[in-house]
Amino acid sequence: MTTRARVMVVEDDRIVARDISEQLGRIGHSVIGVTARGEAAVELAISNRPDLVLMDIRLEGDIDGIDAARQIRARCQIPVVFLTAYADDETVRRASQAEPFGYLLKPFEDLQLRTVIEMALYKDRADRKLRESTAALQVAQAELARMSRITTMGQLTASIAHEVNQPLMAVVMNAEACVQWLKGEKANVGEARAAAERAIAEGHRAGAIIQRVRAIARNAPVVSEPLDFNEMIEGVLLIVQPELSRQEIALDVDLQPDQPSIVGDRVQLQQVMLNLVSNAADAINSSKNQQRRVTVVSAMDPLGEVCVTVEDAGVGIDPDHLDMIFNPFFTTKRDGIGMGLSI
Ligand SMILES: Nc1ncnc2c1ncn2[C@@H]1O[C@H](COP(=O)(O)OP(=O)(O)OP(=O)(O)O)[C@@H](O)[C@H]1O
Ligand SMILES: [Mg+2]
User: Could you tell me the CATH number of the domain that includes residue 167?
Assistant: First the structure.
């Protein structure tokens, strides 16, 4: 079965262009535009949205068919089939980089043209389906990652609440002190102001803790931006530190200063860190080892890449599990989800 396609022909020889148009008509496709110039081909493709472009490689104008095809692919993902009379190695190499959907040597028979077009349209449909499902998969993965973050944060709720409560208590105490300093005949404005300023600072501290927690729990789109690696790590450690203290686990931190900035998504990286430290704490709690200590070290490795190590002397990983721990939903914990490492 032939699918009737709307085809654009880009060919600088008018007679050949006419012949191709006639061939297309004979095999059941419609021609929605003919041009001899690469620049015009790009514009026409964008405005007319053909199903397919038949593209000569040598063209009039500043850009050749290969460059035009590349621009069309990049801007509107319309499949392009190259037509040419010459096929030297260099041309074929350049043409393949433009991800062509087919290649026809001129002159060609109706049947050849028909087959190449059918195959190109089929591949285009398959590519589209793949792009759609990849996009859907990415959305699902982002949502799963967020659920996992929220679950981990949920386990930290008690200590986060405690962390926020401390500065709030300090706000109240300083505000009370301020009122006392202002009472009576011998009000001390200087002391009152100092107390009010301490209250403000503590209020900001509480706000900053909430900010950090919200930044991690938020369902924000992924943004790759330059980041200070150590600062990203410290942000996580500030959140987990109170929980580690509550579990009587010491935290040793050694962050090598002056590391180059890295490019990445802060939330994603923090999620990875959060899980590594949580895993370490879980491993320590499941072990009888007296050494209740998590060590976090950041340093440049010999290849000049930044590297962070999270170490614990907990139960350790069963060698039989080693090639499974990065699989989604692999967990050895009663209340684990098994998403941490796979993310
Ligand atoms: N530091 C560690 N010590 C021992 N085992 C570990 C350690 N880190 C990971 N594992 C093993 O790898 C498994 C997978 O870890 P992962 O972080 O992906 O999931 P999880 O911690 O079980 O659940 P969650 O989705 O809550 O993170 C763990 O269940 C555990 O068996
Ligand atoms: Mg985990």
Answer: 1.10.287
Mean pLDDT of 208-229: 83
The CB of 280 under 6 Å from ligand 1? The reply is yes
Instruction: Choose one of 168, 200, 218: the last residue of a domain.
Output: 218
Per-residue pLDDT reduced to its tens digit, 116-127: 999 999 999 999
If you search the block for the tokens 């011998």, which residue do you land on? 186
Q: Could you tell which of 144, 152, 331 is best to mutate to test the pocket of ligand 1, judged by most ligand atoms within 8 Å of the CB? A: 331
* CATH code (residue 291): 3.30.565.10
pLDDT in tens, 243-284: 899 899 999 999 999 888 899 988 888 889 999 999 999 999
Q: Looking at residue 37, what DSSP letter applies? A: B
How far, in Å, CA of 340 to CA of 343, rounded? 6
Mutation probe of ligand 1 site: the residue of 156, 322, 325 with most atoms within 8 A of C-beta: 325
**C-beta 287 within 6 A of ligand 1:** no
Rounded distance from Cα 329 to ligand 1 centre (Å): 10
Distance 270 CA to ligand 1 centre (A): 16
Q: Which one, of 278, 277, 214, 149, lies nearest residue 141 by Cα?
A: 149
CATH code of 86's domain: 3.40.50.2300
pLDDT, tens digit (0-9, with 9 covering 90-100), for 73-106: 999 999 999 998 877 888 888 888 888 899 898 8
Asked if residue 340 has its Cβ within 6 Å of ligand 1, the reply is yes
Which of 207, 215, 179 has the alpha carbon at shortest distance from 195?
Answer: 179
Which one of 194, 218, 242 terminates a domain? Answer: 218
Which ranges of 291-341 would DSSP assign to H, the alpha helix? none
175 is in which domain, residue-wise?
156-218
